[in-house]
Amino acid sequence: MAFQLPDLGYAYDALEPAIDARTMEIHHTKHHNGYTTKLNNAIAGTDLEGKSIEEILSSLDMTNGAVRNNGGGYYNHCLYWEIIAPENRGRISGPLADAVNAAYGSYDGFKDAFSKAAATRFGSGWAWLCAHEGGKVEICSTANQDNPLMPGIGCGGTPILGIDVWEHAYYLNYQNRRPDYISAFLGIINWNVVEAKYESSI
Ligand code: MN
After folding, report:
1. What sign does the CA torsion over 24, 27, 29, 30 have?
2. Which of 10, 12, 154, 169 lies 20 to 30 Å from 83, alpha-carbon distance?
């Protein structure tokens, strides 16, 4: 079965003022939808058809630009919609808080490192919080639609949190002020979901 554009689970305007409704609508119905369609076209009739997106990305031939860009775009945006929420977001706690504190000293230390990774990604890309087997967490960033599941990307583990820093994710509202978007994003993270992803990844 072909990959499907997921529903968000909340309205396009539900994340305002952090992310405006028009940005959400275009991002979901145009950008993510485009990656989904192009991924399906790229794998149709190949031996990748029928595999999970995680299987496709973790064994990816990195010279396959169509699957790299559109498979990454499909997966990355599915994660992005899932780890932000308008309400019932919880707060960082439990084993994830322990791992973040071990790696970054405190929640503020994590925020600084994550914000820096997102702000200093030149051009288009993503910043990630990844979980490694054994429980360690790592912040890193990748270019374009690459992600930590892909081989040889210099950033590993399972992504449990990701911020899209392509201009299409923030430009209508924030223009060149990427740091303001990053700061707003940190306020709408659904820690309940991130925590669950952490616990199932380690
Ligand atoms: Mn995007």
Report:
1. positive
2. 154
Q: Ligand 1 mean position to 32 CA, how many Å? A: 7
| C-beta neighbour count of 125 within 10 angstroms | 21
| Token couple for 35 | 């990656």
Quote the pTM value: 0.97
Question: Torsions phi, psi of 86, nearest 5?
Answer: -75, -20
Q: How far, in Å, CA of 68 to CA of 39, rounded? A: 9
- Cα–Cα dist 79/147, whole Å: 11
Residues 183 and 188: their CA atoms lie apart, in Å, by: 9
CATH architecture, domain defined by 20-202: 3-Layer(bab) Sandwich (3.55)
Write the CB contacts of 170 (distance below 8 Å, at least 6 apart in sequence).
Answer: 19, 23, 177, 178, 181
pLDDT digits (tens, 9 = 90+) for 55-107: 999 999 999 999 999 999 999 999 999 999 999 999 999 999 999 999 999 99
Q: Where are the domains of the chain?
A: 20-202
CA distances from 39 to 62, 63, 83, 184 (A): 14, 15, 22, 30
Return the half-sphere exposure (C-beta side, CA atoms, 13 A cut-off) of residue 116: 8
Determine the distance separating the centroid of ligand 1 and the alpha carbon of 106, expressed in angstroms: 29
